[in-house]
Design a protein that fits this description.
40% of the residues lie in helices and 11% in strands. With 542 residues, it is α/β, with parallel strands linked by helices. The longest helix has 25 residues, at 442-466. The radius of gyration is 25 Å and the shape is globular. The N and C termini lie far apart (60 Å).
Length: 542
């Protein structure tokens, strides 16, 4: 294979130079030394287990590392990085690698960021810092359920088997088991690789109902109950939409639909696996809530909720009104921001569809506060969360916990080669090619996943202590500051409008543009656009 060409060439040239030296004299000894050194280097690359990239690309991987050391100007010729197309900078990835490998993240000189730049953010410290003994911060989910779950405030976001390799799933779940946090399965069903290490699972149920579908692709209560009652499954999450491609449905390219994945999902192999954009088990907000309640019962009383990316605000308001009117509540809601990642999505969807996570989270949080429901429903959030400060800012905006995908992928060794959809991931993380993923050392990467989680929470503990707080639940929007101009600074509490408890009750509509426009028009029995929107559409098409 081409990725071993340099190693094979070094062996061949070493042998050739040996023959030439034997036949024509010691002058050819230079070739033996040079090419022999490359051959030794390639052999070491193949035999070591810490770097999947070196195992998959002996010798060649060192050229990549060398170009990365020079900087983005040269690195972009070998691999896309630090450009507009790549979602995380070199510094962000370096932070994950340091924490995953247990390397000190202490820096010399000063901040990498300009504190006078617009949008620069920070957390204010206290002159009376707190002393926090443990960084194992948890939030109780489903306290009224028969089987409530004490979740970590930082967990692995939804990534399916299929999008990720068997080795990657094994390493993620083993890391979750070691660190005591949960692993969201993604919508691709629970594979045997999710079960090997016994780490906590949140089972995501998408519109394809993979793992709990009948022969016609519709939801099967019997197949769902058979898996949901497994003690390893801690919560059940209905995926309404995801941030990277909201309104589109999941996509697993045919190249990655192996026979094993087809069997796990219950679909034909070698064919694009595309989830429907909408669910068939319900069609309106009240039906969604009944479906969530049914999943809770079928699972034996485990917390059940849903995940969504916010689009049309009236649709979220319709769900909120249905909760208020029926009293049927999810145990949790996960808000996925439009900046969320994926293995394959149309360009326009990944770039220009859906509400960013901060605004989406704030809208959901405000609505629940305004209806007096916030204390009864837990909120998770996901969308480009990597560092402890990312977690702190997200919790300050209203979330109870955070999920991350790409940060944990970096811990596995992802280098952002942007080849997830081609089945040619060089590090064995996002591929179904066994020649690539079998070189990912599961034990080593599981340790890195657990270390990244642990060290990130230790950093969060230190941030909280510096701010004089003792638990992430004490974070509020007043703790996070943002520069809005060269001469102005605002806290998030001053920048955003936060509703008061019960402000939406009794027919009141707060002075908030989105609530003013759409709250009175949303109906709890339909996702359809309100009358005002239909009238505007009719006027434009007349």
């Amino acid at each position: 294979m081409s990725r071993y060409a340099a190693y094979a060439a070094s062996l061949a040239l070493t042998l050739l130079c040996l023959l030439l030296a034997w036949r024509f004299g010691a002058a050819w000894g230079w070739g033996v030394l040079v090419f022999g050194a490359f051959a030794v280097l390639g052999s070491v690359d193949l035999l070591q287990r810490r770097s999947t990239l070196r195992r998959n690309y002996p010798i060649l991987a060192h050229f990549r590392y060398g170009l990365e050391a020079i900087g983005p100007e040269m690195r972009q010729y070998f691999i896309q990085s630090d450009t507009a197309e790549v979602p995380f900078s070199r510094e962000q990835r370096a932070l994950v690698y340091q924490r995953a490998k247990g390397v000190s993240d202490v820096r010399p000189f000063g901040s990498l960021h300009d504190p006078y730049a617009v949008d620069y953010e920070w957390i204010n410290h206290s002159l009376a810092p707190a002393a926090i003994a443990s960084a194992d911060f948890r939030i109780a989910i489903g306290e009224a359920c028969a089987q409530p779950y004490p979740a970590s405030v930082f967990n692995i976001s939804a990534m399916s088997f299929g999008a990720l390799s068997a080795a990657a799933i094994r390493a993620l779940n083993a890391g979750a088991a070691r660190g005591g946090f949960y692993h969201d399965t993604g919508e691709g069903a629970i594979s045997p690789y999710h079960r090997e290490a016994g780490g906590d699972l949140v089972w995501e149920i998408g519109s394809g109902y993979f793992g709990c579908r009948d022969e016609d692709g519709r939801f099967s209560e019997e197949r769902f109950a058979a898996q949901a009652r497994d003690p390893q499954v801690k919560m059940v999450e209905v995926k309404l939409s995801q941030g990277a491609k909201p309104g589109h449905g999941g996509v697993l390219p045919a190249a990655k639909v192996s026979a094993e994945i087809a069997a796990t999902r219950g679909v034909p192999p070698g064919v694009d696996c595309v989830s429907p954009a909408a669910h068939s088990a319900f069609s309106d907000p009240r039906g969604l809530l009944r479906f969530v309640a049914r999943l809770r019962a079928l699972s034996g009383g485990k917390p059940a909720g849903f995940k969504l990316a916010i689009g049309h605000p009236w649709e979220w308001f319709a769900i909120a009104k249905a909760m208020h009117e029926t009293g049927e509540l999810p145990d949790f809601i996960v808000v996925d921001g439009a900046e969320g990642g994926t293995g394959a999505a149309p360009a326009e969807f990944i770039d220009h569809v859906g509400l960013p996570m901060h605004e989406a989270l704030l809208l959901v949080h405000n609505t629940l506060v305004g209806l007096g429901l916030r204390e009864r429903i837990r909120l998770g959030a996901a969308g480009k969360i990597v560092s402890a400060f990312d977690i702190a800012r997200t919790l300050a905006l209203g979330a109870d916990w955070c999920n991350a995908a790409r940060g944990f992928m970096f811990a596995l060794g992802c280098i952002q080669s942007l080849s997830c959809h081609t089945d040619r991931c060089p590090t064995g993380v996002a591929t179904q090619d066994p020649a690539r993923w079998k070189r990912l050392d599961v034990a080593d990467k599981a340790a890195r996943v657990a270390a990244f989680h642990r060290n990130t929470l230790l950093a969060l503990r230190d941030l909280l202590a510096a701010a004089g707080l003792e638990h992430p639940r004490e974070l509020g929007p007043e703790h996070i500051l943002r520069r809005v101009s060269p001469t102005e600074i605002r806290s998030l509490a001053a920048l955003y409008r936060f509703l008061e408890p019960g402000e939406l009750l009794g027919g009141r509509v707060p002075e908030h543009a989105v609530f003013q426009a759409f709250w009175p028009l949303a109906a709890s029995d339909s996702f359809a656009p309100p009358e005002r929107v239909r009238a505007l559409r009719a006027r434009k098409t007349a």
